[in-house]
Amino acid sequence: xxxxxxxxxxxxxxxxxxxxxxxxxxxxxxxxxxxxxxxxxxxxxxxxxxxxxxxxxxxxxxxxxxxxxxxxxxxxxxxxxxxxxxxxxxxxxxxxxxxxxxxxxxxxxxxxxxxxxxxxxxxxxxxxxxxxxxxxxxxxxxxxxxxxxxxxxxxxxxxxxxxxxxxxxxxxxxxxxxxxxxxxxxxxxxxxxxxxxxxxxxxxxxxxxxxxxxxxxxxxxxxxxxxxxxxxxxxxxxxxxxxxxxxxxxxxxxxxxxxxxxxxxxxxxxxxxxxxxxxxxxxxxxxxxxxxxxxxxxxxxxxxxxxxxxxxxxxxxxxxxxxxxxxxxxxxxxxxxxxxxxxxxxxxxxxxxxxxxxxxxxxxxxxxxxxxxxxxxxxxxxxxxxxxxxxxxxxxxxxxxxxxxxxxxxxxxxxxx
Length: 417
Prior knowledge:
Elements lengths: L9 H4 L40 H4 L14 H4 L25 H28 L3 E3 L14 E8 L7 H7 L9 E9 L6 E4 L5 E4 L3 E4 H21 L5 E5 L1 H10 L3 E5 L3 E3 L4 E3 L2 E5 L1 H9 L8 H19 L2 H5 L1 H9 L5 E4 L4 H15 L4 E4 L2 E8 L2 E6 L1 H12 L12
Parallel strand pairs: 1-12, 2-7, 4-13
Antiparallel strand pairs: 2-3, 3-4, 5-6, 7-12, 8-11, 9-10, 14-15
Helix pairs in contact: 4-11, 7-8, 8-9, 9-12
């Protein structure tokens, strides 16, 4: 039989097969769930195991999501994005450690200590910049240097820095020119006690180029240089430092420290010095303090009595100025540091450290750690060409100054009177 139009489809419908030639096909069975191929997969294609990443192949720890971990997509509504950190307001706030008040106290104390140190240094530097300089070193031959440091302290009757009203109030007058009311030698040895020695202003001495006259005349004739040369020539000591204070400086220092207490055995009334003091202990300031150290006519010892009061006043001033109150009280410290700058003059080469050494030595003298004495006298009221004058005891004076020239003050106590 010739093939028809659909002969080629016989194989599909098995029309060319004879009955009984092949077994009947098995009925359809339901496969277990484990044998069901994935959706869309081919039943005759075996499943491939999941591919391992490079990290899995290298033995890295498995970072894949465990079955018990939530899926990002589940957390974000199926967006597939990693979860976001909670807002700052929702984050737990760690409690801050409690503040230690002790640290604040230490910081404040440290600032105050630093400020005090700066203040203590800055004030003297400022005051020192306003101090006048004076040439005092004489020319020509001078004595050799002695051990230690020798200061010539001069209290002049200069009215510089005083107004007319102040001159009237203090009773200084308005005399022109310059004279010296006070002259002292402060010797600071390398070791041992410092010595403060008064040189009476009426001492009758040889003044280079001017013959014999009272010591205070040397300043009138030739200023600090001639006064220094006269002292050096008559003592054999070389003057290392020169310090001069006028009336205004003295009064300002006294007032800055709140006055000085003195105890009088009997009342003092002196018209020329403008003082009227009662007996007993009292605090002297301004006019009364200045009159007390200048007065001599009402003193039975004359010029010798005056130098004793001058040493007493200078020692008391140094002691009070060096007290802790002068340092810790900022107002007092400022006033004291600047009190004498208007009428204070020092040598051209005098340093602030030299003045500090002088202050320390004066503190020792005022606290019984030093010696206060007057040059040995043979006649306190000698009649000379310059009028009533003071004569030195040449032998004892030579011995006293000779000991100082050797740098030794241990034997000067014999001259205490």
